[in-house]
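Run log, item B.
One chain of 240 residues. Sequence copied directly from the ordering sheet:
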Amino acid sequence: MKSIKPLLPLLLTGSLAACASNAPEQASQAPAAVQHTQLGSVWRTADGNTLYTFAKDQPGQSNCYGPCAEKWPPFIASGDAAPSGEFGLIERKDGSRQWTYRNQPLYSWIKDRQAGDTTGHGVKNIWFVARADEVPVKVYQTANASILTDNRQQSLYTFDKDKAGESNCYGKCATLWPPLQAAQNAKASAPFNIVERRDGSYQWALNGKPLYTWIKDSKPGDISGDGVKGVWHLAHQPGN
């Protein structure tokens, strides 16, 4: 089966944009750059701080103030900043302006100590890295592990009978274990990639291992599929 190559991280810094000889002077500049981490490609500030989104925000509205904003500093824009591509701006209660990505407010995390740190990913199961690709994967933290989930926070699994880059789960199997569907041309970044299924559809994979959910899991944190028939296993966050 065909494996789609991951998206290579692109540095989208404003300085590079400004140096392009054919760029108009008024061209807008992306406020963040792409940084490759063990979780894949994520957005970062010019200082190298990983950016995050907050599940309790509404589109275009921040709900992180007071002690929350002390731990998760909003990504504040300069006075002359203007929207750029999928990056937008919202006004906070104090009158400052905060960057958004795809209408989701952006924050850093005070416990990240160096460039590439992603220690805020999955905190309280409501904070997640701001992905620079289209991988529909989040994480759910339990007392013992960091479990990969889809965007609905349904646990993700791998199947021992699959081969690298190839799914062997079809028919009734795929009904019980729905593949994590992908668009053919979706932006991927290692360790995530896209594999083609025999029916011509596409599926997300982790290091070449196709990913699935389990129909008997009903809420975030459910892991009833782990160990089924000895061949189904939870997919864990890379690095854990």
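Observations after the first pass:
- The chain has two domains: 7-19+30-132, 137-234.
- Residues 7-19+30-132 form one domain.
Flagged for discussion on Thursday.
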